[in-house]
Amino acid sequence: MTTTQQNQETKTEIGKESNEESNGAKSVEKIASGGSRQRPENLTRRLYWIYQIAGPIVLVGGLVALAVFVSWSLAFVILCILGLVTIHEYGHFWAARRTGMQVTEFALGFGPKLWSMKRGEVTYAFRAIPAGAFVRIPGMYMNEKKTEDIDDARSFRKKSFGARVLVAVAGPATHFIVVILLFFILFTFIGFSGVNADIRETNNWSVTRVVENSPADEAGIEIGDRITAIKFSGEDKARPVKTYKDLVENHIVPNPGAKVSIIVLRGDEQKTLKSVELLPRRRQTDSGKIEGYGFLGIAPKIDEKSSVNPALGLAYAFRDTGVTIKEVIVGTGRAFSLSSISDFVGDTFSFESTSSSQAQSNQEIRVVIPAPGEPIPIDAPPPEEGPNESRITSIVGIVQIGDGSVGQSARQALLFFIFVNIALGLVNLLPILPFDGGHVSIAIYEKIRSKNGARYHADISKMIYATAPILLFLIFIVTVAVIRDISDPFNLN
Fold it and tell me: DSSP secondary structure string, 182-227?
């Protein structure tokens, strides 16, 4: 072998070693920056697996520490909310796969990957920031990086109108399915005594609480009494009381200011009590109208099982899901009226002393859903007499309410998650990007503009400018709500 050939081979070997060192260094740099997950050799491979295993352990350990040292109910609420978000994203994932769309990633959390595996074309991953979940569907969002593994023909934007609407709606729909399931559990297995009108249609009840200084207190109603009749001033005969529902809806509420004599069954003896005036109160109807109603001041004890059979429980679940969604929409409309927004922002940034604000917040917020046999505050003081907690709530306030609700009973926990699911479902249906409803509105707009079989494609970048003022307003309101929930927290008793 000549000297020239030896020199060339030596240069080649040096070049290979240099390239291997360079590639190893790049691999380490990629792993440190949260980039490609190439598995380097020797020490770097060990560091890679330590990184992969340590991340989930830290997250789980943090949640366990929160449960042990702070509040188990708080940790439970946070875990459940993250679970609801994951179910939401699975709805998108399921619909996308069913309609033939390409899905490249299903991830729990955001930020750098802590763990991942690839099955087919989908990467399943845990990421460092446990603030939710996401599904990556090519063509669904702007500013996406196009890579070689993207199948443009199977992207979100290239699919049919029906497929795009189904994928967009599937996420919010999961929340309403969960609501129906929770209501079913509530009615069938736990019981919803006194709140469901049909369950209250019983005469097997007695007084279990008398509001202090109320007409009931003045009349001399005692715990254990059962009201059997009411005699109105000016009428010759007393009106019989059939059920507790009949008492409240037909005799007390419609007659504010009426003077009545109350007849009760006390033990085995009928007693006619002192004549009193039903206290006139005011309340706001769903239409926003202020109306008066009568107030007596008692809470009943229903002495019968409140749960129902599964068929009836399912019927009640569907019915109450619809009713509750309507109530949440109406309540949200009131909360976002100009006067309510003005009061909310003004109260949040008022310069009153913290002690006075805290004193109001720490008043009792009475949860109105009792356990079977517990008081049912249907005939209760109106909202204006207590603290005004009907306000816009951030995720901070939601967690505060959830912590208190879960700590009370299984019933309160179910009710809390029912309202959280409804809120998540409705918010995601807002017809602007980046919400799911925004994708639906774009699909409908493109469908209307498409003619003679020619597909119209909207310029999403222009729509962003149109929705920017609304998004900025929502960001402002959420920021104010976070400040309010931190400075004036909810306190459930």
Answer: HHHHIIIII--TTTSTTTT--S-EEEEEE-TTSHHHHHT--TT-EE
Q: Which amino acid is at 341?
A: I
Q: Does residue 1 surpass a pLDDT of 80?
A: no
Q: 182 pLDDT band (50/70/90 cuts)?
A: very high
Euclidean distance between CA atoms 302 and 280, whole angstroms? 26
- Sequence ranges of the chain with CATH classification 2.30.42.10: 205-302
CA distance 474 to 430: 11
The rounded distance, in Å, linking the Cα atoms of 113 and 31 is 10
Mean pLDDT of 320-333: 86
**CB 393 within 8 Å of CB 404:** no
Q: Between vectors from CA 217 to CA 212 and to CA 221, what angle results, nearest 5°?
A: 135
- The full DSSP string for 72-87 is HHHHHHHHHHHHHHHH
- DSSP-based three-state secondary structure for 375: coil
Strands 259-266 and 269-272: antiparallel
Q: CA 395, CA 378: separation in Å to the nearest integer?
A: 29
Whether residue 79 is predicted with pLDDT greater than 70 in this model: the reply is yes
Q: Phi and psi at residue 85, in whole multiples of 5°?
A: -65, -40
Alpha helices in 157-199 (DSSP H): 161-185
Residue 461: DSSP 8-state: H
347 phi and psi angles, rounded to 5 deg:
-65, -35
The whole-chain average pLDDT of the chain stands at: 75
Report CA torsion sign: 418, 423, 424, 425: positive
| pTM score of the predicted model | 0.65
Rounded Cα distance, 439 and 428, in Å: 10
Please give the structure tokens belonging to residue 462. Answer: 């222009």
The confidence score (pLDDT) of residue 129 equals 76
Contact in structure between 140 and 433 (CB atoms under 8 Å):
no
Please state which of the four CATH numbers 2.40.128.120, 2.60.120.620, 2.30.110.10, 2.30.42.10 is assigned to the domain occupying 205-302. 2.30.42.10
Q: 217-260, pLDDT tens digit by residue?
A: 899 999 888 899 999 988 889 999 988 888 888 888 888 889 99
In 10 A of CB 379, how many CB atoms? 22
- CB neighbours (10 Å) of residue 366? 12
Q: What are phi and psi of 447, to 5 degrees?
A: -65, -40
Residue type, 213: N
Whole-angstrom distance, CA of residue 82 vs CA of residue 398 = 13
Chain Cα centroid distance, residue 200? 28
Beta bridge pairs of residue 226: 265
- Cβ-Cβ contacts under 8 Å for 170 (sequence gap 6 or more): 91, 92, 94, 95
Going 78 to 80 to 84 to 85, the CA torsion angle's sign is: positive
Residue 349 DSSP SS3:
coil
